[in-house]
Amino acid sequence: MAMRQYDFSFEAMACVNELSLYASNKRQATAVAKKAIDAINKLESRYSRYLPDSLLTRINESAGDTRGVAVDEETAALLNYSQTCFEQSDGMFDITSGVLRRIWNFRENKLPTDSEVADTLQLIGWDKVIWDESRIVLPLTGMELDFGGVVKEYAADTCATLCRDMGVRHGLINMGGDIHVIGPHPDGSPWKIGIQSPDDPGSIATTVNLKHGGLASSGDYQRSIVIDGKRYGHILNPKTGWPVEGLRAVSVVAPQCLIAGSTSTIAMLKGEAGKRWLDEVGLPYLWFDESSRLFIKDDCSMREAS
Amino acid sequence: MAATNSYLRHLMAAAVALPGISVAATPIDKGDVVVDLKYVHYEEQDDLMTVDAEYLTLGIPLTGRNDLTVSIEFETMSGASPIFMSPGQNGDPVVVKSGASITDQRTAVTASFRHFFDAGTLTVAPSWSDEDDYTSQALTLQYEWDTNNKNTTFAVGVGFASDEVWAEGQVIRNDKEGRSVFFGVTQVLNTSSLLQLNVSFAEETGYLSDPYKLVQVQTSILPDSRPDDRAQIAVLVRYIRHMADDASVHLTYRLFNDDWDVQSHTFEASWYQELPGDWTVTPSVRYYTQEKADFYEPYFVAFRNDGYYTSDFRLASYGSVIAGVKITKKIAGNTGLDLNLQYYARRGDLKLGGEHSLDPEPLSSYLVTLGIKHTF
Prior knowledge:
Chain A contains seven helices and 15 strands.
């Protein structure tokens, strides 16, 4: 039975996303895509911090209330995962650090004052959160959780798992650059995934070939401020409140997009030290340094996410 | 995937708890063809048995939900083997060996077909083995599934075997049948450790004696003669703990008991160490101690009412030790080499506690395995 590639484009999580899958007919492909996209929408409705009735908004609105909010199993697992990233990155990966957005406005060329930074840092720290695996308490008014760097990647994995469960063996989900390859093209050839150049997001700096698994990138692709010739990227260090330096962008290949995403984010946060750390982690990767020079870990495009 | 360091291991453990993340549904090496070649050399000291074997294993993904692994083995055995024991001076047993060198060749094929259901994995594994004096056909079925956010894995299995055994030159072919059931549970205790428990029951019926072995009863030499039924139970407990620095320790205890009164305990410890440059080194030690079958004697001073006799030292009271090391090296991403060295020593007085069988000829042997594995 000949299979054809069907592409579905949809908006979710503030991105234009693309699901490509091979099926024997359009009806079959559409049925799978509908279920997969529904699942992504459901995740967005639960974990978006922009939607007024999402679970995440409810948690954030409870900040300062010591009774906290009871959460379901999936949310608990996401919080546990985020906590693991916090512990494994020595506190650099921190889902409470989103409040820094309040003082860093990348649309205006203006830096925050030292006292603004100091005040905001008071509200940051996963170690200040009370989390007992079923109930979460944000003890200080103004604290906020942000699943950016977790939920979009997890949505790509969820979508891939659902497609696989429904019999799809060849396909790819691209959530605004966070990718999970369900399986290679039917002839066994890999998907060729273009990596944007951080200086010119319209051009492709290199291509990664992937047959299975996740690929995620983190970096200063768009938002940055330039003041007196110095560039301030939008990846902020939760400990200092200032943009990190050392790397422009990092892409990582891992069995799950979620793990690729957290690993690329942690590498960015570690800055210069992230280079050596990526070697220790052992996953295929590539990075652009401050002068946008590209370094590809030799087997990044050859090796699978294994 | 094999998490290569503690960072990845922790993230993987946290990620698999998420309902949208699946790691189980991916077949071997995610749809790649795997070829594994192994050469094994086994040699007993004092010119007893020597075995050389070659294995070829092919892992073939069929569809996303099915895969097949086929393993072919060629084995050549040669050497002398103990036949029976006679009382020497002071009553100490003296071994009588087969004079001429025995040679035998074995060819075995094992296939393992897996189907990945949404809820679990079914494995169907038939096997065939053929040698000059033995043929065997076997089938095992196993189903494995997990619950509790993949923290608990259960496995159940059944096995059947039908063998024919005879001594070379003999016309009579003796039948032997085997049936077994197996139950296993693996529990993740926390992000760095897991505990595994397996229980299996097996029953063999038919001709369970060794057609090459004899026994001395008073002044008569009789054939090895064992009951035609053997019921066995084995319980295995394994604890695996990942250590911080890319290492893990595996501790295993196994209890075996059968209705021939054989009881054994096995203790094994191994240490997996990952080293820079894609090396792993795994030293291990194993200690085994066994209580003899009730019809085992080196030689018999009286006839037994039940007519069962064996002087096969494998059914005696003894202990043994294996010390080994396995070294693997990954080269060029898709290719791995492995070397496994083992030294084995078996002696009556290595038995733990109680009386051990008189042991005229302690056995020691070594085993070398060389392997290369390539993923396409």
